[in-house]
Design goal:
Elements: E1 3-14, E2 17-29, E3 34-38, H1 45-52, E4 60-68, H2 78-87, E5 89-92, H3 106-117, H4 123-136, H5 142-145, H6 155-166, E6 173-177, H7 185-202, E7 205-210, H8 213-217, E8 222-227, E9 230-236, H9 237-242, H10 247-254, E10 305-307, E11 311-313
Parallel strand pairs: 3-7, 3-8, 5-6, 6-7
Antiparallel strand pairs: 1-2, 1-4, 8-9, 9-11, 10-11
Helix pairs in contact: 3-4, 4-6
Length: about 325
Amino acid sequence: MMLEIKNLKVNFATPRGILQAVRGVSFNLSEGEFLGIVGESGSGKSVTAASIINLIPPNGLISGEVLMNGKKPFTMSGQELLSFRGSEIAIIFQEPGRSFDPIYNVRKTFYETFKAHNPAISDDESEILTVKLLKEVHLPHPEERLKNFPHQFSGGQLQRIMIALALASNPNLLIADEPTTALDVTIQAEIVGLLKELKRKRKLTVIFITHDIELVSRLADRIIVMYNGLIMEDNTSRNIINHPYHPYTMGLINSLPIFGNHYSTHKLISIPGSIPDPVADIQGCPFAPRCPLVKDDCFIKLPRLNREDGSYRCIIDGPKRETAHE
């Protein structure tokens, strides 16, 4: 097992009290697996990903355990973490325009990255490797773009450069944190296709974080559905899309627009209500106030993760539920 996460909890101290961002997440990831993590904004997806490499702000408190090929990032020194980040795990962030230093051109950006892991690298060696990586992510005319600065690229081009930068140290695990959110649908498709190509060529292990369950179902071997800092369902992409167990998963799928349907004849089914306050002390299932299948017991105690061809956190047992997309 490449990655093991056990009972991960992340809390943040705020003026309003303790914000529970991640509330006891556990999952494993095998080498070469493509894992999708989905959920609405505020569900704990990005915080879970950042915790894997111990990239949490000072007001955050992490507990639990993360093992990456036997290494424990929570117990590493500052220098060990710097080496671990990039060489073992790399992250692609959702807003590439905010991930670059505006006073560094492409050549300088890559040189600093290479030098962090190989202090002896020369300018010429760095440039050769940079051009090779930029070609790999299909950036047009890479030799000519080395002198350019971030503001001289489009959002899609910056995301390609960010992907190349993430691959600069040959990581074993690539975390893509909503890499298509700020892009139009055409560029989204290109970035998704690029990630699929890189996974195949490099035999990468990937965690893809998104709010778009339909998008990730076309990429991932397995999908984890998160809500209010908890895993609500964990199953293969095929089972998640075609036969979801949890009402929240069903709601995410039913709220997807169906290609070819017109708004005048097909009403979009949205999930009523909003996500709960992460500072609030919730005793039962956090999805209960929004759930169409809610029972009185749902408000009393947090359901455990049931194991039935996967995992789901719901007191309702039995057959898989149908969705509007079947």
